[in-house]
Here is the input.
Amino acid sequence: MYGKAFAPEYQGALTSLSVNSSLVDVLAEATERLREAERAGRLGEAARCGLAVAEAQRRLGRIEDADRAWKASYRAARQAGDTGAMAWALWSGGTLARQRGAFPLAWRLLGLAADLGERGGDVVVRGYSLAGLAETGRIQGDYAAVGRLHEQLLAEARRRGEARHTVWALEGIAQMHRNTGDFDRAYAQFEEAARIAERAEDRRGHAWALRGLADILSVRDKDTEGALELLSRAEAGCRAMNLSSALAYNHKMRGNVLYRAGRYAEARKLYELALEEFRAMGEPRGTALARLGLAKSLAQLGRDRAETAAELADLARMLERGGLKHAREMVARAQEEFGLGMEDER
Here is the structure.
């Protein structure tokens, strides 16, 4: 049995904030509480309020502001000798590093956060940090390395009745099954995640689960309208919370659904929108995926073959350097789809 979802990253004077609070509201209140703590010289409280500032900025796509905020939170926590707050700040920094595509830094910061969490006896930040490591490996396409960790974290979350973490783990495992072609298993896990998230009032988790279900309805069942309806429901949740990154991925997925249905002109517009959103928040993985979708749509709409070849080759090199294995495989499939090889870029 799962209780209502909660947000452990909202700490100190901010514990009354809901997991579904608008990020704009979170940022405003956390900034005010942070200033109060700084004026009063309460370093531990400043660290914990600064964490909420960092997370709100990150989720709003304000990368530079988020980077400054988590570092300031860590400095305050270190001065206060607050091991738990130090771990949470490192978790935020590691999560931001992953979002920016700085995977080696993400591994290092999240590993340090997990160690500090264990040393300080904070099982929640330890669990979140291990989850961050698992998600970093999954995004890079290293399923063999992190699949077992996802399953372990799912079991722990179920045992503790933590709805939000159960939903996260189910969605991660479902995504790996989807990417390796086991659509039925993926659908069942996204469906369970959506059910748990809805009952626990976890809008963010629910929006991501709906996106996963829409993807499978589109690719497995060719149910374009059903997929688009799910994405519209997910988008409403993203807009209610100002979830910039989730909204951009929603738009990218809508482009995928339209592309599979042969509606290339409509898909092009969605990919262009997602590309603009990802670039604005400095998210390289999302940018690459939107570029890929846009390149494929333009090719279907008659773009010059040489331009398509050059675009896909550039994407392949970028993803190879970034260590994004699964996304690199997607580019290879696109090159095959259009009968293009490396020699075509010349």
User: Anything to note?
Assistant: The chain has 16 helices and no strands.
